[in-house]
Write a structure and sequence with these properties.
The complex is a heterodimer of chains A (306) and B (176). With 306 residues, chain A is of the alpha+beta class. Chain A is 29% helix and 24% strand. The chains are: A alpha+beta (306), B mainly alpha (176). Chains A and B meet through helix 1, helix 2 and strand 1 of A and helix 1, helix 3 and helix 4 of B.
Chain lengths: 306, 176
């Protein structure tokens, strides 16, 4: 029997390190600590960023065959389909160029009128194009990962759009990639304006509904809301610029026993399978900081009631 | 070492092979997400499967520390709460260590049935953590994941033991 057939190092009988139960306790405690630090206090951002950086080569490697297959499919796509797509996009461009010309004139008019009325100027925001690499695998949330990170100047909280509307917001920035929480995520809220009536409201993600759904909450049961109304960003939050299309109202249910109407909306952005997106700089960086609250008299007790 | 009657005497496992299969499993998990079916609750967790396999077969090399570390990696990749998979994999690895002396006495299909509770516990912990953190229930397809993982156990058992099943003395006339 040649050498190397059997594992010849004797097993360490007496020195096996801490017992399994101890190790279980230590690692479980560590995991719970990390979870609390991550979800309650956002303390783990540097750790997360460094792990993401270490994982990036492997992700890149996995992405290569996926890209090859996708682009290979494009290569064999028929010529007529490509020409049809080109025609459609040219038509769309023509339609939009008319509007774009009007917008130029309108924005000049708007600035002059605002100057006349001594109002604050409307804020412009610069954008950068990005590509969605994949849907984040976590089935409990609705997130996608884009290929622009802190290195490319993506800031935390930036709004993300696709060609038809608001897609979501950047919620985690890694050095080379970023995570975007979609508007249909349960924890994502976006302030909206009903373009028909001018009423402001808050739309929350509603992933329970089929496709990309949102829910317009806290609207009175007798509020003037009709199916088909367009909701755009209202711009009061300091994150999203005003006037970006968000959703269209799909269904309004008014029940007698509640004070609010149940309004479900359909997101205008393509919340599943989107490929190219635009990342805007968050308005909060452009806006002046809010005024400091007035200093309390020093005699009052901390958190005390009067 | 006491062995099951008829069990083949295996070559020692190479540490490099163990770690490279773990990294490959991590890559396969990513591929499932990036290339194949995106955000799917039912997708089997290859990394958990390979971790349990090596914890059962090589408990001296792969244990709770590596399970915890790989759990953190998958957390960052998925964008989940940091430590969620860390906790699930640690508990799963502890159960695997508790099981490993007994498990290898069974045939491979019986082993697959015995590791099913491990995967169930791991997914239940993830579900519990996310429900506590205010997540949304992803639906009943979640139950499919542990089933698929334990169905893949025989496949993994054959594939990962192949390098250890080679003949100790190579013979050109007798390749197997």
């Amino acid at each position: 029997m040649p050498l190397g057939t059997l594992d010849r190092t004797p097993p360490p009988f007496f020195r096996q390190g801490p017992s399994a139960l101890t190790r279980l306790a230590v690692f479980s405690l560590l995991a719970v600590l990390l979870m609390v630090a991550d979800s309650r206090y956002q303390l783990t951002r540097p750790l997360r960023a460094s792990i993401a950086m270490a994982l990036y080569p492997l992700q890149w490697l996995v992405l290569q065959p996926v890209r090859l297959v996708r682009h290979g499919g494009d290569y064999f796509e028929s010529l007529s389909a490509a020409q049809a797509a080109l025609d459609a996009s040219e038509k769309k461009l023509n339609l939009q160029s008319v509007r774009a010309g009007q917008v130029e004139q309108l924005s000049i008019e708007n600035t002059r009128l605002r100057e006349l009325l001594a109002l604050r100027a409307r804020l412009g925001s610069s954008g950068q194009a990005a590509q969605v690499i994949y849907d984040a695998a976590d089935p409990y949330t609705r997130k996608v990962v884009i290929d622009q990170g802190a290195v490319n100047g993506v800031a935390l909280g930036s709004p993300v759009l696709d060609e038809s509307g608001v897609l979501g917001q950047v919620t985690r920035v890694y050095p080379l990639v970023s995570e975007v929480t979609l508007v249909t995520d349960r924890d994502q809220a976006i302030p909206v304006l009903n373009t028909r009536t001018g009423a402001r409201g808050l739309a929350f993600g509603d992933p329970a509904s089929r496709g990309g759904g949102l829910e317009l909450r806290f609207m009175a049961a007798n509020a003037d809301v009709l199916p088909g109304d367009l909701l755009t960003t209202s711009g009061v939050d300091g994150v999203y610029p005003a006037g970006l299309p968000v959703a269209r109202i799909a269904k309004v249910e008014r029940q007698g026993n509640t004070a609010f109407a149940q309004i479900s909306c359909q997101a205008l952005a393509q919340v599943s399978g989107v490929e190219h997106v635009l990342v805007l700089a968050p308005l909060a960086t452009v806006l002046a900081p809010p005024p400091e609250p007035e200093a309390r008299p020093s005699g009052s007790r901390k958190g005390g009631r009067k | 070492m006491i062995m099951r009657p008829g069990q083949q005497l295996l070559l020692p496992a190479k540490p490099l092979f163990i770690w490279s299969t773990l990294v490959t499993a991590l890559g396969l998990s990513m591929l499932q997400n990036i290339g194949l079916w995106g955000r799917a609750a039912w997708a089997p967790d290859c990394l958990a499967l390979v971790l349990v396999f090596w914890t059962v077969h090589q408990p001296q090399r792969v244990g709770m520390a590596s399970a915890f570390a790989f759990g953190l990696l998958i957390d960052v990749h998925q964008g989940a709460i940091l430590g969620q998979h860390g906790l699930a994999y640690t508990v799963m690895s502890y159960l695997a260590i508790a099981l490993q002396r007994r498990l290898l006495w069974f045939t491979v299909p019986a082993q697959a049935l015995q590791v099913l509770p491990l995967f169930l516990v791991s997914h239940a912990i993830e579900l519990g953590v996310r429900m506590a953190a205010g997540g949304r229930f992803p639906g009943l397809p979640l139950l499919l994941a542990p089933l698929l993982e334990s169905l893949l156990w025989p496949v993994v058992s054959v594939l990962l033991l192949l390098p250890q099943r080679r003949a100790p003395d190579r013979d050109a006339h007798r390749p197997l």
